[in-house]
Amino acid sequence: MEPRDVIAVARRILHLANRGPGRLEFLREVSRIFLEFSGCDALDLRIGADDRSGGYRWRASRTGEERFAPLRFPDPRASAPPALAGDAAPPRGDLGSGAPWYEDLMESAATGALGPRGRCITSAGSFWTGDAPVDLALTGPTEPARGGAGGVIVSLAVIPFDIAPNRRGVIALQSGRRHVFTGETIGRHEALAQTLGLAIDDRRAQHALRERVKELSCLYGIARVLEEAEWSIEETLERVVRLLPPAWQFPDIVAARLRVDDHERALGDLGRAAHRHAAAIVIEGVIRGTVEVGYVEERPEFIEGAFLTEEHHLLAAVARETALHVQRCEARAERRQLTTKMRQADRLATLGQLAAGLAHEINEPLGGILGFAQLVRRNPDLPATVTGDIDKIIRSALHARDIVRKLMLFARQSPPVRAAVKLNAIVQESLGLLSHRLRESGIETAIDLDPADPELPADAVQLHQVVVNLCVNAIQAMRGGGRLSIRTRRGSDGVSLVIEDTGTGIPPDVAERLFEPFFTTKPPEEGTGLGLSVVHGIVTLHGGEIGFVTEPGKGTRFEVRLPSVPPERETRSASLS
Ligand code: ADP
Ligand code: MG
């Protein structure tokens, strides 16, 4: 073995560390290099802890034996009794020879306490012998140490090295053969051990850097996904959950799950994961979901805990980002809904004013037309053709008056005549009127009336119109038959009336203009487009609210809510007329 070889081996070790592999992968590889270079059968490594990394033991042999165990190495600055002496057995498994003298030797070497320097202790504080157990017997009890291959250790070198300030390690090279070490080779092993110290620190830094880059890439990716407002929540969760595994130490065995309310996306089978951690998704103090990551297989590295501190932080960050995203989406949806509602209310108010003006203007001349037509009609000397024509005038004028009345209802120009009204009775009467049409159209009805028989202050005739109009629309939406459900309920502050059909549903462009007077999608003989505007006017006049949910192709549900006490400002519109 030439000094040139030492340089080549040192480069290999440093190069390996620079790649930033996981710790076990690094130890495995470095052990192979050491065993090959030294010609030994086994090596035993003890690495001290510092404030950034825990200590550990590692043992590897030519026969493929491998052991790893976490360890608290004694702080070289502390004067406490050696932690590894006597009964302080290795924490897990039988690492090293386990003989007390051997443990003492390892520890003394690590703390630089070996002496006196001379025959088997170098000036750098390494212990070595080329010809044990005779020599070993001189330093401790005559218990033969076991080598890696299960044989007796004949040659042994125990070399301390520095890793970082306050962090030291010691490596023991063991062989079953004589004269493996000489005064010259031990110097080279010392040089390589120092290289190993540098490499251990470098690997940690490189590895930490790599982990950090992975985490930041993950967070960056998630931030970009969450920026996209167009995706559905499901799609967003899907994309986020896919970004998680690469950020964890062992991506190939990661299972992950992301849940927000009823939406959930999973990757792999988290149920099988023995190691998992989770972070709650909290929105305005309410837990709305979780993000979970787990490992579905065991790895030797998990002996120190399956997840890195950074991974806990990352998971929490993902939960936070997701919560913020959901909050933003909800705020946006709410704003959108509010603007549509306001725009609709605005339009209806304008239309109401227009309708009111129109109704007044037409009412007078219409009254004239009707009055004089009726007067003329009374004349007995008129020829039959003329009376026929006058009847047509009267019929048309009556029709026009009906429309004007409806317009006034929409414009809330006719104040309701309030009395205590029983809602169930109104529903039953209206259905009685419609029973023939219902039968004819092949529609079954499901009536669910509140047994408490709620009463409310209302205009019975107007309420009647509400029920009939809503039911007629429902019937017209179920050409091929269906089911009409009606429900009445008394609530805490009023009564509600729900009328639901299994009809065509309402497309969004129609829904937007639903309550406008004269807006209709029906042929003239079926609809005037005044039904819902009248219903809207009546409900508003009673201080109530009307809303609907619809799904095109499935059906529509209208809900009317009316207060059980009359509204305070009920005569505002009446005073206008
Ligand atoms: P009309 O019934 O005279 O057309 P309405 O004001 O009652 O006028 O209704 C306006 C429009 O709303 C209807 O033309 C129809 O397109 C739609 N509509 C109302 N109720 C329903 C319903 N239950 N199912 C489907 N569409 C409906
Ligand atoms: Mg209608």
The total domain count is: 3
* Average residue-wise pLDDT: 86
Tell me the Rg in angstroms: 45 Å
Number of helices: 12
For the sheet with most strands, the description reads: 6 strands, antiparallel
The CATH H-level homologous superfamily of the largest domain: GAF domain
Order of helices and strands: HHEEEHEHEEHHEEEEHHEHEEHEEHHEE
How many individual β-strands? 17
Strand content: 15-25%
Query: Which term fits the overall shape?
Result: rod-shaped
- What ligand species are in this complex? adenosine-5'-diphosphate, magnesium ion
**CATH domain topology of the largest domain:** Beta-Lactamase
The CATH class designation of the largest domain is Alpha Beta
Percent of residues in helices: 40-55%
CATH architecture of the largest domain: 2-Layer Sandwich
Structural class: alpha+beta
Regions with little confidence, pLDDT below 50 for 5+ residues: 73-96, 133-144, 570-577
In what order do the strands lie side by side in the largest sheet? Answer: 3-2-1-6-5-4
Please, could you describe this protein's structure?
The termini are far apart. The protein folds into three domains: 3-206, GAF domain (Beta-Lactamase, 2-Layer Sandwich); 207-330, GAF domain (Beta-Lactamase, 2-Layer Sandwich), CATH 3.30.450.40; 416-576, 2-Layer Sandwich (Heat Shock Protein 90), CATH 3.30.565. It has helices at residues 3-18, 23-38, 100-110, 134-139, 183-227, 233-243, 309-377, 384-410, 423-440, 460-477, 508-512, 531-541, and strands at residues 42-47, 55-61, 66-71, 127-129, 155-164, 167-175, 254-260, 263-267, 275-283, 286-295, 419-422, 443-448, 455-458, 482-490, 494-501, 545-551, 555-563. A hairpin with a 2-residue loop joins β9 and β10 (286-295). The chain has twelve helices and 17 strands. It is an alpha+beta fold. α1 runs parallel beside α5, α5 runs parallel beside α7 and α7 runs antiparallel to α8. The protein has a six-stranded antiparallel sheet with strand order 3-2-1-6-5-4, sandwiched between helices. Bound molecules: adenosine-5'-diphosphate and magnesium ion. Residues 469, 473-474, 477, 501, 503-504, 506, 510, 514, 519-522, 527-529, 531-533, 556 line the site of adenosine-5'-diphosphate. The site of adenosine-5'-diphosphate has 21 residues, from α10 and α12.
